Structures are given as structure tokens and as C-alpha cells.
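Support reply, case 0932

Customer input (verbatim):
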Amino acid sequence: MNIIDDRESIKKIDKSNMLTLLENFDLQCLEANSIETDNIPIKEYDCIVYAGMGGSAIAGDILKNSFEQDLSIPFFVHRNYGLPGCVTKNSLVIAVSYSGNTEETIDACQQALSRGCTVLTLSSGGELENISKTKGIIHVKIPSGYPPRCSLGYLFFPVARILSSAGYIKSFDVKKIVDMISYLKKLYGVDSVENNTAKNIAKLIHNKMAVIYSGEFLFPAATRWKTQIAENSKHMISINVVPEMNHNEIMAWNFPAHFIKNCIVFFLYDRQDNERVTLRMNLVTKILQSKSIPVEKLNSQGEDALERIFSLIILGDWTSFYLAILNGVDPTEIKEISYLKQQMAVSEKQ
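Our regenerated output:
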């Protein structure tokens, strides 16, 4: 029996039990959508800025791409200190940090307050909650004790519901998304041994360099694949967007030869892709296959935009978990990230 088909073998590596978090993600989404929130002031903002890093920022990417066609104002996902110069007192800034202590997000929040922006914060506690209480701004409190990357439901649905209730994005059917996640759990879960796409992809990536390409619409899913495989699997992965990669990166598939020979490429397809983007991805596939580079095509599933992005995110999450097990590493452990945060905190005190 393969190690990723056996719960007892998995448990020996998955010491912090990320498997349970994966299996309960549908329930997390339901709970997240029911979290009590205050309403933001309804007015004509000049832009919406979603400030966050890592797992917290992915929720902003999903919001932006799922509802961009409905938004009448710019929506930015900001992954940095400070804020762009165009953000004014007429802007809405949403500062999201699972721990509440992400220094880049705290800095963006403080900048927003200094400029007189309308500010909404979301965290499980930390400094972001303290700032919100001190300044009397809206704060959404979510449950603590989860790895941030396993908290996507809590990070996404409360903010999405607030924006939907205020009329800035269209309403969405949470039950449909949860039903889809529950269905995919049966397909990708440990007990699914035959034709398990997540397990099969993990086996393909194992001991290889994975490269993910997508159109702009599915790029949040590609980004999620990269972050999950990096953190969970401790495995190198690269992503890029089409058509941009056609204008430069396509030429890189020549050298170094030993690296190229050890790569596998995945294309993420969606029916919302521009037909010229689809053609470009098909042509790049032919080019890569002519160089004997293995290529796999993955299609999104579902009816509306939100479902389709989530369908590939769920596949990537399960894939990253199985790849971690194949790599023999605890998917929850992130000692390099923890070390970096500790050293940044020390430098701030000096």
C-alpha cells in the first residue's frame, strides 16, 4: 500500500494533524459565513484595498477575481508595508492578518488610519485587534489556533459577506460552494484510492520541479498552489500567468538542461479564459511537449466564478498535503518562517 493511502502511515508524518483541518474545511466555510460582523459605512469609495500577506492575501485575490466584473471601482490586493499613493480618505481598506501580528499588514492599517480611510480589520486577535479597539473601527474576530494557510474559510467568507451585504459585490450561494468542497473531499480524501486526482498529481510532482501556468482569472488558484506546496510540502514550485509568460519565460525552457529534464508543467484552464489565452496555452503545451517536457491540463469545475476558483484551490490543497507526506515532512511545520519572524522582531527592538 502506498503511504498516502494509509491513515496510520500518514499520522506518523502529519504530527500536527493537518489532515483533520483539510477534512473539516467545508464545515469551516459554513461557520465562517455565520460569524457576526458589523456593517461598513455604505458610500462611494474611490477604491477598495485588501491588505494582507501569505495565506491571508489569497482571500483577497479570490475576492478580486471572482467579483471583478461586478465592481465599479478598483480593487487592489496589497502585499507590502504602507499603502499606494492613490489611497485616500475616500478609500476602503480591509486589513487582514490571521494572527493579527503581521507587521506589513499592521503598517498598512496604520497608514490607512492616518489618511482617514474607512478601515475594516479581520484577525484572530493580536495587534490588529488592539488597534481596532483603540481606534473604534470595525473588527471581525475569527477563531484562533489554526495555521493561517488552513484558515481560508475564516479569512474569506466574513469579508465577502460584508462586501456583498453593502452591495459592492454580488451575492453568492455559500451552500453551493460548501457542497462542492464536500464532494471534492470524497474524491481527494485519503480513503479514495482509485483515480484520486490529488494523489496522482502529488506522485507526478514528487522529486520534480513543478511549474504552474494559468490565465489571469485562475491566477489566485495558481498562487495558492505555490504557497501551499511551498509551506506544506517544503517543495520548490514556480508559477506564471498567460499571456505574460509568452513574451519572455517561454524562451527559458532550454537551459540548464538538467533542470529542464526534471520539470513537470501544469496548465489551469477555465471557461472564462479569453479564447486567445486558451490558444496560447495550447500552443505552449505543444512547444513543451516537443522538448519532451511532461504537461498536464487541469480544468476548473463549477458554475459561477467563485466555485470554479475554489475547485482548483481545493485540489491544490490536497495535492500539497500528499506531496508533504511523500516528501516525509510534517505539512504544518514552518521553522524557517518562524525563525525569520523571530529575527525581524529582534531587529525591531534593537
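We compared this against your earlier run and they match. Two observations from our side: Residues 3-10+175-327 form a domain with the Rossmann fold fold (CATH 3.40.50.10490). Residues 305-327 form the longest helix (23 residues). Please reopen the case if you see a mismatch on your end.
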